[in-house]
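Suppose a classmate hands you a notebook page containing two proteins, each written out with its sequence and a corresponding row of structure tokens. How would you begin to make sense of it? This section walks through that situation. The first entry is reproduced here exactly as it would appear on such a page.
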Amino acid sequence: MKIAEALALRADHQKRIEQLKARLLRNAKVQEGEQPAEDPEALILEYEALASELVHLIKRINVTNSSASVAGRSMTQALAERDILKLRHTMYRDLAQAATITQAVATRSEVRFKGTVTVSVVQKKADVIAKDLRELDARIQEANWLIDLAE
């Protein structure tokens, strides 16, 4: 199994765990004399089995990521860099948006606002980071389809 397949399976397990939780909560109580729509004990067993599979899968993904190499660094390092690039990109994009003055002033007595940063410079920085993020993400995705999951 490739890392990409394991990641898809992990997402599926996480989704199924959330669905099982919702089903459990819906069947946690019933009116006196009624039966739950589903057996809570069976749902708990299914939940626990799936959670156990998920732990094993996540461990295998983490071991693989720590030993796999992407663009001259470990997958773990590349993932950390991607996360920070996402944070930085969002900050610069949001800063450019916040500094853009779109308020129309109707009278001379109204409060006027001015940006404290140069929007074009901030937007260019956001664009550069977005490009770096796309390139790194492409390398990570490629590696995910080439690298086998550790046992």
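The notebook's second entry, a different protein, reads as follows.
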Amino acid sequence: MSNDDLPEGIRAPEDDELFAEVVEMLGANRVTVRCADGEERTARIPGRMRKRDWIREGDLVLVSPWDWQDEKADIEHRYENREAEQLREGGYVTETDI
């Protein structure tokens, strides 16, 4: 998917990134996410996002799965509520995906 496909100003996933929904807060900067490929992964919130982007259950995020351990991932971006609604309404993310 390229940036041309998405509404203006919304970040598109790169080659190794997936849409995911935060399912559970685990503490210690870790969350459980349900990814668009059907897998549930433990994702970590990087230091650059900890205080700037508050992540809550139900948020739509972009994750980058680890190459060496598929059940884990890093959160790359959190979508604002308005952006998440636009993605769902436009059919870019469906409830069956995540």
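A careful reader of the second entry would note: The CA atoms of residues 37 and 97 lie 7 Å apart.
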